[in-house]
Structures are given as C-alpha cells and as structure tokens.
C-alpha cells in the first residue's frame, strides 16, 4: 500500500532523513516511533506530499506520489500535529469547509459528514463552535475532517500529544475501529506504550534512520532474540544466582528481590533440564517464564536511551 524507497531529506547540510525504506501493507496500523528530532514529522510530511524529498520515491497503491501529487492527495487523509484556530466556525461548518476543499458538493458533504461525526462521537456537537471543544474532541474532529474524502490511507502526526488518558483511550478505539473498516493507518508518536497497545507494526527512527521495522512481536523478538527468561525463586536467591551464573549457556542480566533475569542460548529440552536441576538442588522455583520485553526497553536499546515522554 505505502512503499518508501531510499528516501532522503536534507535541510541545507543537515540530513533529517537518511535512506529510509519502508513498506506498510494495506490494513496495517503502523506506528512510527522515535525520540524528538528523529525525523518522523519530516517523513510524514513527505508522504503526504507537503514537502518534496531530496531523493527517493514514495508510492501509494503503486502510484508515484511525486509524479502524481493530485491523485495521491485523494488517497491520503492527514492529521497534523497542530490544530489551527477556527474562530466563529461551528463543527458542521468546519466539515463543510474541508469537504469543499476537496471540491465535494454540499450534498456529498452532507451525506458523509453526519456519519463521520457519529464515528468520532461528535454527533451532538454539530452546532457547537470548534474553538470551544476540548482538545480530545478537536483531535477527533481532525480525524473526521481527514476522512471526509474517504481516503484509503490515514496519516496522523502525534495525535495523542496533550490528550488526557481518557481522550487517548478514545483515540485508540477510534483508530482501531477505522482499521477494522479497512483503512491503512500510519501514526507517529514517542509515547511507546500506546503504540504497542494499538499498532500491529512499528518502525523505530533515530537520527533520520529507520533502525528497525516490522510486526511488533517480530521486532521485539529480533532485538531480544526471544531468549530472555525470568526465574522467580522463593527463599534464598544466592544459590540460584550462582547456579545460573555457572551455566555455560546462560548470562545473568539482573537480580531482583525474588526474580532473576537471564538470557540464554538453550534449546527447549535444555531449559526443562535446567528447571529440574534447580529443583533437585533444593531451589524453590516459583516461576519460570519467557520475558516478553516491552517497547520502552526496546526503544532505549535501539536509540541509546533518548526517549522523551510527554
Ligand atoms: N524546516 C527545517 N529546517 C531545518 N531543520 C529542520 C526543519 N524541520 C525539521 N528540522 C530538523 O530535522 C530534524 C527532524 O525533525 P522532525 O520534526 O522531522 O523530527 P520528529 O521526529 O518529528 O521530532 P518531534 O518528535 O520533535 O516532532 C530535527 O533535527 C529538526 O530540528
């Protein structure tokens, strides 16, 4: 659906995006993660045709975005990371305004506007002035207006920034709903836990480069090698730690009050043998499970710990 190949963006001598290659399949909810200044907004703006790349190609449904910008704009709904000032504009007028920008007739706008406002849960706000809406409502209205021309790809730049927890949950539900309706969605954020909850695939950017991309589980599996285990022990920790440290295929990563985190290069049956040996040695093993890892630690690992939550 979205294909980015060898994409570069230079601001003068500064390279904001460097050799970015990415494929987002149809129906994906893809999250762009990266610390401030990683190049997410720059990439998104190029995808949406708001800024030309220095080099590289972007295609949507196989259509070259640089060669056919008008056609591409019909395919994309863009939600920027800022909300303009709309004095004296009611919600329904706001939708009319954006519909007319896509040269839709009043009848066409009316036909979709009501449905979209219902979708974003703003049906009862049609006659309310936009500037009096809460931030969460404004963000949802922004999504509704981005969908007015029925684009297949929705691109959102930091849609959750400044939202309270409840508004974030509403935004997440809305995006998941849109995905189930067949939209492809690209969302940028540096709030990693949220992306982990809602996206099925992610790309991690750092200093203009995509350092990792793919299905969330695969990305984490790749980084951790899927070989981290948490061993929970009741009673004395020392014998368990010593035994694990002496094991040639185990590296003890950290020791907590009741848990030992290890990484290993063992096969299934060797893991089973290890548990049996620990128990034979009188160690009371109360838990032995694969560490799932989380997006935060992955992010820190890949970007050298420059996370900046807002
Ligand atoms: N118009 C510009 N001229 C010069 N440098 C720019 C311009 N726009 C962005 N940059 C620089 O390019 C880099 C990437 O910026 P960008 O806004 O794409 O990052 P980002 O990942 O979206 O960060 P944030 O999370 O802070 O929005 C930053 O170092 C930024 O200072």
Automatic annotation (TrEMBL):
Could you say which protein family the record assigns here?
Belongs to the ABC transporter superfamily.
Question: Organism classification, top ranks?
Answer: Bacteria, Bacillati, Bacillota, Clostridia, Lachnospirales
Keywords per UniProt: ATP-binding, Nucleotide-binding, Transport
Could you tell me which Gene3D superfamilies the record lists for this protein?
P-loop containing nucleotide triphosphate hydrolases
Q: Which Pfam families match?
A: ABC_tran (PF00005)
Entry annotated with the keyword Transport: yes
Native organism is Roseburia faecis
Picking any one GO molecular function of the record gives: ATP binding
- State the name under which the record lists this protein: ABC transporter domain-containing protein
The residue ranges of the ABC transporter domain are 2-232
| Coiled-coil residue spans | none
Q: Does the keyword Nucleotide-binding apply?
A: yes
């Amino acid at each position: 659906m979205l294909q980015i190949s060898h994409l570069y963006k230079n601001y003068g001598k500064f390279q904001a995006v460097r050799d970015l290659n990415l494929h987002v399949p149809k129906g994906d909810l893809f999250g762009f993660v990266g610390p401030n200044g990683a190049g997410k907004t720059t990439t998104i703006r190029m995808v949406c045709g708001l800024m030309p790349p220095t080099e590289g190609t972007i295609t949507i449904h196989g259509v070259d975005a640089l060669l056919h910008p008008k056609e591409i704009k019909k395919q994309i709904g863009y939600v920027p990371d800022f909300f303009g000032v709309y004095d004296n504009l009611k919600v329904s007028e706001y939708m009319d305004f954006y519909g007319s920008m896509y040269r839709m007739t009043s009848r066409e706008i009316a036909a979709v506007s009501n449905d979209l406002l219902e979708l974003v849960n703003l049906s009862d706000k049609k006659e309310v002035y936009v500037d009096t809406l809460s931030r969460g409502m404004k963000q949802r209205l922004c999504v509704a207006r981005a969908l007015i021309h029925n684009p297949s790809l929705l691109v959102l730049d930091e849609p959750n920034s400044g939202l309270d927890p409840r508004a974030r949950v509403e935004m997440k539900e809305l995006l998941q709903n849109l995905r189930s309706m067949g939209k492809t969605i690209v969302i940028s954020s540096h709030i990693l836990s949220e992306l982990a909850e809602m996206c099925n695939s992610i790309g991690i950017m750092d200093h203009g480069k995509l350092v990792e991309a793919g299905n969330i589980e695969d990305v984490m599996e790749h980084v951790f090698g899927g070989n981290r285990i948490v061993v929970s022990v009741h009673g004395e920790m020392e014998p368990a730690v010593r035994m694990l440290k002496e094991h040639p295929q185990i590296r003890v990563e950290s020791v907590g009050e009741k848990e030992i985190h290890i990484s290993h290069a063992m096969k299934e049956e060797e893991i089973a043998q290890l548990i049996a040996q620990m128990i034979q040695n009188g160690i009371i093993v109360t838990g032995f499970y694969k560490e799932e890892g989380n997006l935060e630690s992955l992010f820190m690992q890949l970007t050298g710990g420059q996370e900046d939550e807002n």
